[in-house]
Amino acid sequence: VKLHRLRVLDFGTIAEADIEFGPGLNILYGPNDLGKSTLADAIRLALLLPHTSTHIEEYVPWTGGRDPVVELTFETGPQRIWRVKKEFRKAGAALLQESKNGNEFNDVERARKVDGKLRELLRWGIPEPGGTGGGRGLPTSFLATVLLSTQSDVAAVLKDSLQDDASGTGKERIAAALEAAMQHPLFVALRRATQARRDEAYTDKGAKKTARGSVFKTAADRVNVARAEKEMLQRAVDGSGSVEHQLRELVTRRGHREEAVASATERLAMLEQLAAAAASRAEAAGRVALAHDEVQRIRKIGADVNEAVQAVAVLSSAVAATERTLLAVESHYAEAAAAFTATEDNVRAAGSDPAMTDVVARQGLELRKARAEQAAREAHQQIDRAVAAQRLVDAVVIAARDHPSYQRAANVAATALADATAKQQLLDQQLRRSDVLERALDVRAAEAQVALAQAAVDSDTNLRAQLDRATTAREALAARRSAMTVPEASALVPMRRLAADLAAARGALNVGLVVTITPHAVLDMRIKRDRSRADATSTAVPMEIDANTAVDVEISGVASVRVRGGRRGAQKAAEALEERWTREVAPQLAAANVGDLDALAAAVSEADRLDADLKAGDAALESLRSQMAALDGCAATLLKATERAAASRALLGDTPLETLAADLAALGTDPLTTLRKRRQQLSNDLHTARTTASESSTAHAVATERGRHSRATLDAALAARDAAVADLPGDPASALAAAQTALAAAIKEQQQIATELAAVEHTIAAQQARIETALRDARTAVEQARARIELAQAAKTRAIADHALQAGRLGALQTQRDAEDLSSAENRLQEATASLAALPIPERAKAALDEIERDIQRTHGALEQVGGAVARDRLRDVTEAFEAAERREREIEADYEAWSLLLEQMKEADAAQASSLGQVFAPAVADRFETLTQQRYENVKLTAQLGTEGVVVGGAVRSTERISVGTREQLATLYRLSMAEYLSTAVVLDDQLVQSDLTRMDWFRALLAEKARLFQIVVFTCRPGDYLAANAMAAKGKVVHKDTDGGLVRAIDLGRAVRRR
Amino acid sequence: VLRLLHTADWHLGRRFPSFPEEAQKTLSRARMNVIATILDVARRNTVHAVLCAGDLFDDPCPEPDFWAGLARTFQDRTGPHPPVFLVPGNHDPLMSDSVWAPGHPFRARLPPWVHVVDRDDFSYELGPDAILYASPCRSRAGEHDLAMTLPAREPGDSRLRIGCVHGCTFDIDNYQTNFPIGRDAGVQRGLDYLAIGDTHSFRDVTATASVPTVYPGAPEPTSFDEPGAGSVAMVALFRHGLRPRVVPERVAFWRWIDRRCHDLDELRTLLTIPNLDRHVVRLHLDMTVTVAEESEVDRILRDLQGTEAAHGRAGVLLVDRTNLRLHPGSGGVFPDDLPPVVQDTIARLDRLIADASDEVERSRATRALAHLYKLLQNQDTIGVRAQ
After folding, report:
1. Nearest by CB: A247 against B139, B177, B385
2. Fewer Cβ within 10 Å of end Cβ, chain A: N or C?
3. CA–CA distance, A960 with A154 (Å, rounded to integer)
4. ipTM of model over 0.95
5. 3-state secondary structure at position A644
């Protein structure tokens, strides 16, 4: 607690006061009766007295007036500033506020709850108001007395203790402060570290921390995240499993359905076979019926034929009659023609018969016309031959001209073909060579791998040998080292120190001795000086024995005398050191088989060197093992590489690798790439060459064919030309001209004849028409009869043929009909039809199959959504993570529970150590008290409950009642200051040292100034000079206070801060 | 000879949730780093093509870091490069919004020699006499054999025919819905080599058949039960009808080992494993130790795992302490010259152990002793003041 400000209204004799405290030593001074003790009481009442308590009555002015009001601002820690305001008496009020900055306060508690909260903050051993042990007046406790005791009993603390506190909070607080003071630094560090680890996980009250960032929260979050992800994926996998199960079921059902469909299809095929058989029978029956109808039809045709034959015979008669008529007409015509000829002759002879003349003229004209036409035709033919001959001549010329060029083209194509073929063969060879080289490279690469693998195997063998040697060397070193038993090098230092101490102790005993023996008779003695061997001697005269440290005299039969140098303490010290030497050093020397520490040091050095060698050997061994591990599997690699080399060599075939060396060397540093490029180039070239060869071949064939064809054409043209020219009367051109002239003459003759003939034709047409009419009639009748006969004959022939055909078919059908068992087929058909009706319709089965297929597709779509194997993979990962997180959470929990337990046990052990508070606290008071009294008092005795038993004077405890008042007040002040220092809290001293002399006041002034740096001290005094230098007091005027010593000392003039009634 | 590099199951973007955060990053980064190694191996072996048979990403829509990182790895390759074929698998199926979709920015960043198999009828002529057929997964699960969707060999076709799909052969659990691949699919489709992906260990499924069907395995292992992971398959095809040569080539940086230690010596031996810094170690402590020995266990674990001030000797360490048991009681391991209050604390804990009614109490008190022992062993870290 540190006081900030005190404001008082109508409190006792004070009408108003307002005091601001400094952080260190506050000297509040003023004359007597100013109200200093009232202000001290105001602080006490503000902190301890419930505002409704009747205890306030003594502070209510007897003159009446307003109720007393006290407002105290104080601090309990960084940014924990409190302001309590109490308006006392029944109608009063209480308010407790809190602030972080001392300016802005927030209400915390009101009325009666204010005191509960204050007592919780102070932890002075005062119970909450209203509880058991809480009186109605001003509550008190040991700490209240220590920190706020009144002027009326400045030494009250020496009569008080924790024994009577109504609550344990005061004791707990003091114990905690004293524990912290008395703890071992190692324990403090251990406890602090343990507390820090425990606080990572638990709150002050021991509950698990669950805020964001806490270890449990982090671990739980990790588990929850993993669990959520796992559950999500589990659902996906379950979904997958379900869908997959469904899919498998559907696939199975599809299989069954497919089997059903196949079975139904098979049965359907059988039924269809039966149906086909039945249909065949039905068709056969139909064909029988058809054949029967056909026979009937053919028979009818036979009858028709007979009828036709008869008709033909009738027609033949008619034809014969017609022929006869025709013969008669012809005869008549012959007669008429003969008459006509005779008439013509007559006309021609007489020249008077115009008709005959016309006929003769016409005949003459026709003869002329025939001749003219003949001449024209011949002329045409002559022209055609001439033109053809001319064309042949031209063709021969062209053929003769083209033929050599075709021959040249053929020759060129033949040459190109030969070149391309040769190039192709060359490229083929190179390509094969390239393949061989690639295989050779494979062989080389494989052999290089073999060499590398062999090198690795050799290296492995070498390393194994090295490992064996190193292991042997290390074992030798280890054997040497294990034979040595030496302490740690660090142990030599205490040994040497012990040796030095021992030498010093022995030196202290080395004082030099002279033992004088004065015998009264002859004495037989054995005398031992220092560490020398005992010497026997016999004497009857006095003798002196010199020694450095000890003399042992054994007088035979009388006594043994031992004289040792040095004081007893020195001897004991030497003996203790000797004993330590024997216990601690001698066994080490014996174990190391050495005589002194130098030899032991040498042995230790030797052992260290061996240890270093062993460590180096271990490092070398580890290095060798790691090198060997790197070669692990080299034998297998060698075997593989060897197999690969053999395989590569087998692929290379019989070609010796050496023969390829030059070619391989020519491939440069990256032979495979070079070879691939070359092979690619060769492949391209080969492709080009093949294309060229193919084109050349085609060109050659074309050219050859053209040449051959050209030759034949030429030969044919020559023959044709020669033949054509031979038929012509001259050369083709003149023959053509003559023929064209003859053609023109013939055409002219034809035109003239045609004109004359038209006139004659008109004349004879009438006569000719009449004759032709008669002939045509007879001829028509004969033709008609002949046609009828031909028709009848054709019908008869067709009927006979049809009859024969139909009769054959009828026979075949009858045979077929006899071969079929119609009734049996009909029965099977009926059975099959019944079975068919009983069977599932394949289309229906197929529809069901299709439905299943659609279900499969749908299910498959669902499966695609849920994830399948992907989800399973992820679930496996997340499950691992989840389990790891759970393990980690359990580990963390166990870990922090252990930290908590450790802290608990540390606290208990600590509390047990600090159970006697008096033992811990007394030295702090006693040391200062001794100093203050200049060692007049040796110690202060305090009880376990911090009660003061008394002071120790001359080894005896004297009650504080028996020491002087001033000294008692000083002891009480030291007690209170020490306690305030331990608790780091303010202490109020109300004219505590009025009985002290100047020397002790000076001492106290220095002490207060020093302690003011550590905690707040409030001193009320009427003698400011006891505490302050003159220049440290508030200057005259209105200034209430003055700070000095860097603000650590504040002088407050209460005469200015307090307004009395 | 037609040389191919066959890889699969990169699982870029895969998470390792059971590992500590830093280790997760390390292991995730390793998946990206190994791709550059794979491409180096491809170039060094002058392969004609690199076939990547699915599950290249762990998710069809990976974080941009992963697809951008992969694109950058490809872009960083300078000079001519053999074609690389990326086949979507069941972890990263080809979907409209997936990284393989033609409109995805990942596609725009790929060099021209990287080909995404984004058609069911994908084919590519690897040369005049060799052709690649591939088909993508279009969902996370499927019951269709993608290998059987590849075109069959036509009569008279004597070219080398290579197939590349993702799926699961019939001898693996749950294959039915994980794009099952028949063991004779390669023969049925007239292929000379069938490159597949899914299983993370290298395996020639048809080791005795004429057409190899090969899982190359994940190039970096993804768990402790993948002994054959960490390789790619180097394939050499000679001519149609002659069985190609298939050899695994290691590319992984990390080795994953699972160790169970039954005493301190076994634990110390762990430190002698060569190249431990390239190992992912899962350590099961199955032993009973004193509180002093537990302190030694912790020291070795710190040595393996590293601290903020020093790298651990193991690359990644995962410790299972479930079966690490403590001998109950202090067992005389504490020094005699401790302050009385500390000795009293130890005695109190020993009494608690002796009087414990159940194992939980006994274990808690023993663990408290172990805490105290470790604090005493590390006095410099808890700020002990000189007396």
Report:
1. B177
2. C
3. 13
4. no
5. helix
